[in-house]
Structure prediction request, 72 residues.
Amino acid sequence: MIEIARAHGALGWKLNGAAGDGGSVTILSGLNTSAKRAMIAALEQENPLFKNIPIYLSRYGLRVWKQENRSS
Prediction:
């Protein structure tokens, strides 16, 4: 996965999880959307178990809303 990401111009990556059947790789792509789409296609073609889960970074950072406690 890292080789594919590097070949498509990824800016960085982070591996998560323990050994075994689970885990994830977070890949930071650049602004070139066609390179990003090609990278995702190449990753999913490499192994049918590889799945893209899109996430987006907020320009505002983390925000938290406080909800009133409505206990009866």
Summary: The CA atoms of residues 1 and 46 lie 8 Å apart. The radius of gyration is 17 Å.
